[in-house]
Amino acid sequence: MNTVVSATSLSFGYVPQVKTVNSISLDIGSGQIYGFLGPNGAGKTTTIRLLLGLLSPHAGSVALFGQPVSRKSWQLFSRIGAMIETPSLYEHLTAVENLEIGRRIRKLDPGMCSHVLEIVGLTASARIKVREFSLGMKQRLGLAVALLGKPELLILDEPTNGLDPHGIIQVRELLQTLNQDYGTTILMSSHILAEVEKVATHIGIISKGQFVFQGTMQALQSLSFQDSTLLLQTNDNGKAALVLKDHYQVEANTAQTISVKASSKAQTAQICRLLCDAGLDVYHLAATANDLENIFLKMVNR
Amino acid sequence: MKDLIEFYVTELIKLRRTFAYWLTVLGAAIIPAVIVITYVYNWKLFVPLANVNPWDELYARAFNGLILFMPLYLILMIGLCFQIEHKANAWKQILVLPVSRAVVFFGKYLAVLTMAAAFLILSFFFTYTAGQIIGMYKAQLNFLGFNPNFFTLLDFSINVSISILAIVAIHFWLGFRVKNLVSTLGVGLAGIALAVLMNGKGGLADFFPYAYPIMLLNYVPAPDKGIFEGFQWVSLVYFIVFSMLAFLRFRKSFIA
């Protein structure tokens, strides 16, 4: 798999004493959807600006499509669509005029504007001035600007900001379609895990300018089983506790339920097997796993 | 070159329906409108002697108005052109487009110069229209019997264009440095006020860019003089120096 985005030991601070981004390294392969998560002020936007060459790193380097990013690497941007923070829109112009600016500079067919407007569901509002748009419509138009030219890499900074639940689902489906049908590599940042977990193949969690987690979505999900508790109900809870205590930490044993510590799906299966082998009837087995939101909050020290 | 043309066109698209656009069109009509009112109400004062071209006096009045109004127009127009980007928070988006920074810089500069040229041309056109209206209103003023002196118009256009270049370059440079329109307007208005106090050519005024247009007050073409006057050469030097500073500033800047 080709590496589309590669950053090595990136560091940057708006003031010399405080590092907003501290030694960040990341690699995003072709065709991945990379969810870039972190609370507000964690350094997500600064990292995105560094990746796009809008800020000069104090240390480290960035390469896009294998080429180092600098002020002179503007040709690279014909392969990239970006929306950084709030969409940059000229409010006195109509939606189609805003797109026309990007279309002309990228030297695309005139039909491209209506095509991207259709993708984001703004065809009916093409001739309306942007100042009349709602926040959600502006967000979708910003997305349309980023989609001009069918980019190979899409960098979206909090693309669902201001969207209603229906709009969030639409954006999610759009990103999945772009990824699956066109192989578009996507980097999307967010401060809400639930928003990213449904689309991302890979996750990076940043806190105070440093990565606290990087890996696949599966790797993050497996963390949810760490230190989880199994609640059990059998026909003889006392015997079940005796069976399990040699292998697992039995936390509580009442007439109704037993609580057992387990840290993986495999352990859950083994517990069930042990009880069945001992001739016990298992009526209820439930894992009270940490949900991803809790894991995320723990990681970012909230 | 194609990149530059496309970028320049997009700059003109951005100016649609903006205050800068209307300022250029309506601002150019203000002085001719005042001239029409003055001639209509005091027409007896303006009846020319036999065989005297009435357009010379009309344009001389228009030139004086233009010289006083144009620096204000330029300061406001350039500030507004930069506000389009600052207000839309658009620099970060522009800098991730597949065009070089040189194209962005010169595309924007060309758009600003186009607006200044449009203002000048529209001013001349509206002044000509004003003359025609006055001529139709009072035949004694003899505007329909003569034509404007093309050489005078061309000579004034070149001289005023050279004289304003310093102000254009300084405010173009300021546009990149200062996001606040009020601050750039403040600098410009202070410059114009000081220029008025300097009261004409000579001394420090020759090195004070805001004074250069004022030095063309009561303009009379002099075909026998050199190409440009001393202050106009200084204006050209200012233009080159501040254009280079603006370019270096923009080329090196990372938009935070």
3D architecture notes:
- Chain A: Pfam families: ABC_tran (PF00005).
- Chain A: This is ABC-2 type transport system ATP-binding protein.
- Chain A: GO terms for molecular function: ATP binding; ATP hydrolysis activity.
- Chain A: Residues 5-233 form the ABC transporter domain.
- The complex is a heterodimer of chains A (302) and B (256).
- With 302 residues, chain A is of the alpha/beta class.
- Chain A folds into two domains: 3-216, Rossmann fold; 226-297, 2-Layer Sandwich (Alpha-Beta Plaits), CATH 3.30.70.
- Chain A has helices at residues 44-51, 95-106, 112-119, 135-147, 165-182, 193-197, 217-223, 237-245, 265-277, 292-299, and strands at 3-12, 21-29, 33-37, 59-64, 67-68, 80-83, 153-157, 185-190, 202-207, 210-216, 228-234, 250-253, 258-262, 282-288.
- The longest helix of chain A has 18 residues, at 165-182.
- The mean pLDDT of chain A is 85.
- By secondary structure, chain B is mainly alpha-helical.
- Chain B has one domain.
- Chain B has helices spanning 2-14, 19-41, 54-88, 91-94, 101-137, 150-177, 181-198, 230-252.
- In chain B, helix 3 packs antiparallel against helix 7 (181-198).
- The radius of gyration of chain B is 20 Å and the shape is globular.
- The model of chain B has no long low-confidence stretch (mean pLDDT 89).
- The chains are: A alpha/beta (302), B mainly alpha (256).
Rg of chain A over CA atoms, rounded to whole Å, is 24 Å
How many independent structural domains of chain B? Answer: 1
Low-pLDDT segments of chain A: none
Q: Helical percent range of chain A? A: 25-40%
Sheet with the most strands: spatial strand order of chain A: 6-7-8-3-9-10
Compressed to H and E, one letter per element, the order of chain A equals EEEHEEEHHHEHEHEEHEHEEHEH
CATH T-level fold name of the largest domain in chain A: Rossmann fold
Question: Which of globular, elongated, flat, extended, rod-shaped describes the shape of chain A?
Answer: elongated
- Beta fraction of the residues of chain A? 25-35%
Sum up the overall morphology of chain B in one term: globular
Give the second-level CATH assignment, the architecture of the largest domain in chain A: 3-Layer(aba) Sandwich
The proportion of residues forming helix of chain B, as a percent range, comes to over 70%
Transmembrane segments (chain B): 20-42, 62-82, 103-130, 150-174, 181-200, 230-250
Pfam family, one (chain B): ABC2_membrane_4
Protein name (chain B): ABC-2 type transport system permease protein
Keywords (chain B): Membrane, Transmembrane, Transmembrane helix
